[in-house]
Amino acid sequence: xxxxxxxxxxxxxxxxxxxxxxxxxxxxxxxxxxxxxxxxxxxxxxxxxxxxxxxxxxxxxxxxxxxxxxxxxxxxxxxxxxxxxxxxxxxxxxxxxxxxxxxxxxxxxxxxxxxxxxxxxxxxxxxxxxxxxxxxxxxxxxxxxxxxxxxxxxxxxxxxxxxxxxxxxxxxxxxxxxxxxxxxxxxxxxxxxxxxxxxxxxxxxxxxxxxxxxxxxxxxxxxxxxxxxxxxxxxxxxxxxxxxxxxxxxxxxxxxxxxxxxxxxxxxxxxx
Length: 272
Known about the structure:
Order of helices and strands: HHHHEHEEEHHHEEEEEHEHEE
Largest sheet: 5 strands, mixed
Strand order of the largest sheet: 2-1-3-4-5
Distance between the termini: 63 Å
Low-confidence stretches: 15-32, 260-264
CATH architecture of the largest domain: 2-Layer Sandwich
Number of domains: 2
Number of strands: 12
Oligomer: single chain
Strand content: 15-25%
């Protein structure tokens, strides 16, 4: 049976401990200049494809993390260049964090750390301040206390996560993040040609194996195996060509090509 008194007692404990744990001077937070929560949630949900508890948590996580590092409009041109975000999960929350902050893998401002934890770290490159925001496991069990009028579990979580204080929904840590020049946004700083397949490897991701520079697929231990180059129907297609493309049945007629190109190692160091 739901004990309302014990739940609210737990809520007060969560607020107290979360605030102490964060150890952040709340008076330094800037004004509410970020877009309204409901607008951010609506746009993030549209981009993600559906509304879910993870979207609400992610939007709020991003809003809180950015505020705590002094970036109240993270998608603005002068602020987006100061921001790097590390997400620790590949779930709905990650999409919401990326949408609110504007960070992108292709711009090297979004980093994926495969920890399986509902958390993200927000780093201000100018001030070097980094804040890690972690979704609490207690929030799920506290949902009945914040949305008691909603009987079904899923809708109840949706409503409760909108009502919970940040200090109940999240734990906050001030952390230090060491980032090297090859992980920074901006132009490529180093290129190496794989000595086995001639593939160019960027940003110091090559593997030195017995003095030979290799790409990771050639060095072994990647996510795929038995890679073989193929030819396929329509392989000479280009954008703007109105010729009808082959159907999927024809695409099954791919032909495996044998052989690999060998090339000497060549290193290019690029200075930004």
